[in-house]
Design a protein that fits this description.
The complex is a heterodimer of chains A (254) and B (393). By secondary structure, chain A is an alpha/beta fold. Chain A contains 12 helices and 9 strands. In chain B, 61% of the residues are buried. With 393 residues, chain B is of the alpha/beta class. In chain B, strand 1 and strand 2 form a beta hairpin. Chain B is globular, with a radius of gyration of 19 Å. In chain B, the strands form 4 sheets. Chain B has a 6-stranded mixed beta sheet, with helices on both faces. Chain B has a 4-stranded parallel beta sheet with strand order 7-6-5-8, sandwiched between helices. Chains A and B meet through helix 3, helix 5 and strand 6 of A and helix 8 and strand 11 of B.
């Protein structure tokens, strides 16, 4: 059974953390993944840095730019995590933009993911219709779950379509924004969370964007299966370094 | 074979809409409406009226006698440089501002490199009384001060793009991010024939007035509608797209594109995307772009800020790959020399972008009876400092 499916069946609210591979230092990738798991994180999104991350705000942009300066590449990432499944058992997802995957070769990329033990992909600029027509078979052949985003502006009809193509969870973007732009939730988000919860989708939802602490994590998971933290964790790495990951995660969960 | 866009938004294998879900409602709203709105008689009437009374169209098709003599062929110049704001860019911003109004948008954003599209956008926003925010790379703001002042005088806010290389591609990223953060009231006026479908097609259609006029104007001059060649410079490719549009499926008309070779194709400082680029995704569309083997988008170089873009519109990628278009590239030196030559032979100082198209005579010899129409996409006022520095004037 795919590790994502298994994790989603656990009777708890899930905390997923995003970080940019190769940041702060090129060789931090593996230790960050291991420390996150030890701290009690349920799932990890490994960011594959891109030169032009147009859905990301300044924090993740800056971490991507630094990671690329550090010498991060697709090949290097696969090399770094080739033995990751000897030490880590939680679901691992690669999150990045489509162009680096396209240049690596979609099939070669998926094959490599399977080899190192990646469970799924999030590629925000690979639209669901293109995926369904051209790439779904390849992803499935290598056991990869492709995770799609929905936003407060996504129509119910489109959400149904995304739900039908998805097999894992749906990444529920909390507000119309780039990453790290907003913090906290208002009535608008609550109404949106309730609307989605009432749709009874076959895939559970995990909320992302705007979650930075215990309060927002609790709010988001009131309606959803879990929540994803990205920019706040990158900021923590920038300000506090890689040795206090446990304190960050405990701060969210308690 | 058709060279135009298909019903899925692709030119051959290029185009499409590779956008994050956050942008889907905006782009989809535009996709569903743009052809319908453009076909409305009232829209057509307002668009054509503004092109005539405000922009000053039709722009002349001028027989360049001395240039023709020098290169022993018949050269016509399509004078987009005489448009209001000094370039072809305004054809598109007029069209898009009317589109934005039809869609009920109250806030306009745009990206700009050299500032020409920014000025053309700020101009139409002033005309329509709409809020205008222009994203411009921090480095470009420093090197294009007069255009920054123009935009401000026209009432636009100029926001510096501080990320990445702080030039046109990053200004485009910032504009896209703004649109993600303001999905309901905002329209994004893209300035070139790039971006997610329907932008390349919409921009091309608004610019197609260039080739529409060439046809009837050439008929008056020469008794025939079709030249032997149409020539244009290409960065993203909006003036080229408009110049080619009505000739795309008429293979008797040769299509010639001139890209910016910068300091030379192999110098590492170039913007010749068709030669140096590889298929990939940039700013929401699949096209040829300059990138590393790892798929990171690289920074181009050209003396002309308007051609300094790492990609090329999907129409042009298709024209290149299918062989329908002949692609050349002109170095900084060739372009500057061609610009000076036009000034001294015809009394017209062209934009440095346009000078690249004029450098075609360095690369191709035409027959004496050939009719060659060159798109004179912009005037050189904005580039005077560059010309002064280059020629020590």
């Amino acid at each position: 059974m795919n590790r994502i499916h298994q994790k989603l069946q656990e009777n708890k609210k899930l905390l997923s953390i995003y970080f940019t591979a190769g940041y702060p230092s090129i060789n931090d990738t593996v230790s960050i993944i291991e420390d996150l798991e030890k701290s009690g994180v349920d799932m990890i999104e490994i960011g594959l840095p891109f030169s032009d991350p147009l859905a990301d705000g300044p924090t993740i942009q800056a971490s991507s730019t630094q990671a690329l300066k550090n010498g991060m590449t697709t090949e290097k990432l696969f090399e770094q995590i080739k033995d990751i499944r000897k030490t880590v058992s939680i679901p691992l997802i690669i999150m990045g933009y489509f162009n680096p995957v396209l240049q690596y070769g979609v099939e070669a990329f998926c094959k490599k993911c399977q080899e190192v033990g990646i469970d799924g992909l999030i590629l925000p600029d690979l639209p669901v219709d293109v995926y369904a027509e051209q790439y779904k078979d390849t992803f499935e052949k290598f056991g990869l779950k492709n995770i799609f985003l929905i936003t407060p502006q996504t129509s119910n009809e489109r959400i149904q379509f995304i739900d039908s193509v998805s097999d894992g969870f749906i990444y529920m973007v909390s507000s119309a924004s780039t990453t790290g732009a907003k913090s906290g939730f208002g009535d608008e988000q609550t109404q949106y969370f309730e609307r989605i919860a009432s749709m009874q989708l076959k895939n559970p939802q995990i909320v992302g964007f705007g979650i930075s602490n215990n309060e927002t994590f609790t709010q988001a998971t009131q309606y959803a299966k879990g929540a994803i933290i990205g920019s706040a964790f990158i900021k923590h790495l920038t300000n506090k370094g890689v040795n206090t990951i446990d304190a960050f995660v405990k701060g969210i969960l308690n | 074979m058709s060279y135009n866009i298909n019903n899925k938004g692709y030119y051959g294998e290029f185009g499409g809409a590779f956008i994050p879900e956050m942008l889907y409602p905006n782009v989809e709203e535009l996709r569903q409406n743009y052809l319908k709105v453009m076909a409305e008689p009232e829209f057509q009437e307002e668009f054509n009226q503004l092109l005539k009374d405000y922009v000053g169209r039709p722009s002349p098709l001028y027989f360049a006698k001395r240039l023709s003599e020098k290169y022993t062929t018949k050269v016509y110049l399509k004078r987009e440089d005489l448009n209001h704001t000094g370039a072809h860019k305004v054809n598109n911003t007029i069209g898009q501002i009317l589109m934005a109004k039809r869609l009920g948008k109250t806030r306009i954003i745009a990206e700009t490199g050299a500032g020409q599209h920014g000025v053309a956008t700020a101009t139409v926003c002033a005309l329509m009384g709409l809020e205008c925010i222009v994203y411009m790379g921090e480095i470009d703001i420093a090197r294009q001060a007069p255009n920054v002042a123009r935009m401000k005088m026209l009432g636009a806010e100029v926001h510096p793009a501080l990320s990445g290389s702080r030039t046109l591609k990053d200004a485009t990223n910032e504009a896209i991010r703004d649109w993600i953060n303001n999905p309901v009231n905002t329209h994004y006026i893209i300035g070139s024939a790039i971006g997610p479908h329907p932008y390349p097609d919409m921009v091309t259609r608004f610019q197609s007035v260039i080739s529409e006029e060439i046809k009837w104007q050439l008929k008056v001059h020469e008794g025939r509608e079709n030249p032997d060649y149409v020539v244009a410079c290409i960065g993203g490719g909006s003036n080229a797209a408009g110049t080619y549009y009505h000739f795309l499926d008429n293979e008797d008309v040769g299509i010639i594109a001139v890209e910016a070779a910068g300091k030379g194709i192999d110098s590492g400082e170039s913007a010749a995307t068709s030669v140096l680029g590889k298929e990939g995704i940039i700013h929401g569309c699949k096209t040829l772009l300059m990138q590393t083997n790892d798929g990171q988008i690289t920074e181009p170089y050209s003396i002309s800020a308007g051609l300094d873009y790492p990609g090329v519109g999907p129409l042009h990628s298709h024209l290149y790959k299918s062989g329908r278009g002949e692609f050349y590239s002109a170095t900084d030196d060739e372009a500057m020399t061609a610009g000076l030559e036009l000034a001294q032979l015809e009394g017209i100082i062209p934009a440095i972008e346009t000078s690249h198209a004029l450098a075609i005579f360095e690369h191709k010899t035409f027959k004496p009876e050939d009719i060659v129409v060159i798109s004179l996409s912009g005037r050189g006022d904005k580039d005077l400092q560059n010309y002064i520095d280059y020629f020590k004037l």
